[in-house]
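Usage

Read records sequentially. Each one opens with the input sequence:
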Amino acid sequence: MNHEWSCRLLSIENNLSGYNADIVSKMARYFQGKRCVLEFGAGIGTLAVEWEKQTKLKPECLEIDAERQQVIIERGFECYRSIGAVARKFDGIYSSNVLEHIEDDLSVLKELRSIMADGGVLAVYVPAFMQLYTATDRSLGHCRRYHRAELIDRAKTAGFQVIDCYYVDSIGLLAWFAARWSGRSLRFYDTWIYPVSRRLDHLFMRRVAGKNLLLIAKTP
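and closes with the structure output:
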């Protein structure tokens, strides 16, 4: 199963390059001056590679799956196996499509807070709207999709000050199931649909609705 998921992640990486680049761009703009950065739930290092490409800084990674850890290490990134294995403070932590897989997400946010320096920045990207939760979410291991107020409340309860929280990928509300598509369909989505969605987000939809939510917070 782990090998199957690693292959699937590699396929998604190959076919959603524009989407992944945009996620990193949206997050990284809040990390100006942050030199010590961790990716929580790094998968096979897709966003870590993009993060280094865009910022010229190599993030450290945390990934619990042994096979994916090996891929990350082979790509040249340091990788922790758990939050408990981290013995330093980070001034920035980002995570994409991870928190929704964790049953006790609040406890994890509190743990992340414990390994962040004062004034550190947290960026969390998650699927939006529990009304969209289907069997596909269950098959992907999602415990939930998030409402904006719910995500903000989680972050505040964990000890963060919320800077912003907005919707991403407005057209994706109609095409969010793209993760089940073939590689060709993913590439079509990445090349033609997502750029339009990104433009609509920028114009007005980010405060209205979208397939995902991006939360930016900081430690006091």
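Summary fields computed downstream for this record:
- The longest strand covers residues 116-127.
- Strands lie at 37-40, 60-62, 79-80, 90-96, 116-127, 161-168, 212-218.
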